[in-house]
Amino acid sequence: MLHFLVSRCQPVLSSSQKKDFESVEKELMEYLSNVFLESLSDVQTYQIDRCLRIYSNLNKVDDAVYLIRNDLVAPVLNNIISEPSLAKEEQGLRGIFFKLLEFTDGPFVPLFTMPSAVAGRFNFLVSAFWTELVQRFEVHMKSVFAAGDPNVFYQRFTDTIEFLDQLRRRCSSADVLDCHPSTIHFMQKWNLLVYYKIR
Predict the structure, then answer these.
(1) Are 96 and 86 a contacting pair, CB within 8 Å?
(2) CA-CA distance, 54 to 76, in Å (whole number)?
(3) What is the pLDDT along the chain (199 residues), one digit of tens a residue?
(4) Widest CA span of the chain, in angstroms?
(5) Is this model's pTM higher than 0.90 or not?
(6) For the chain, where are the alpha helices, taking DSSP H only?
């Protein structure tokens, strides 16, 4: 309602009134973010759905995705995706992927599997989790894509394809994951041409 009124009154609002509106909006969005995060930690499905509807009605879908990616996904992935983590992991990349799937099946699973129609606009599994994962792989685990040792490369590529299959099963639609720019970019990082030349 506030957005609607301000949009209609833009031509007659003074700069101080616009600043007041921005201040009120910021305060309300911070409150919404806090309620949203609390509802996730307590797994309050009704409250999660309610917050998503508010974000959607305010055209703040990107804000909700950023919040989940930055406050919930990034800290967890920071502890999983790194060269030292890969070196210590007994099962190698497969073990890393297992931990990542555990996260998607953990306390935030209601967020990734919201049955509400409005939840489809957010798709946190791909837009927050998967996008963050791809970025971190490129920055913090570059060795995974190296084709120097054909046997290791093949095993890692096979483990990745298996992980993607598992992730597809958690998506509302496989196309959502397969057609996402992050997926296309991620798959291009696997230099299969070099692998076949070495092989």
Answers:
(1) yes
(2) 26
(3) 445 444 555 565 566 655 655 666 678 888 899 999 888 887 778 888 888 988 988 888 899 999 999 999 999 999 999 999 999 999 999 999 999 999 998 867 777 776 656 666 788 889 999 999 999 999 999 888 887 778 888 899 999 999 999 999 888 777 888 889 999 999 888 875 554 555 5
(4) 70
(5) no
(6) 2-9, 15-41, 45-57, 61-67, 74-80, 83-88, 93-104, 109-112, 124, 131-140, 150-170, 174-178, 181-188, 192-198
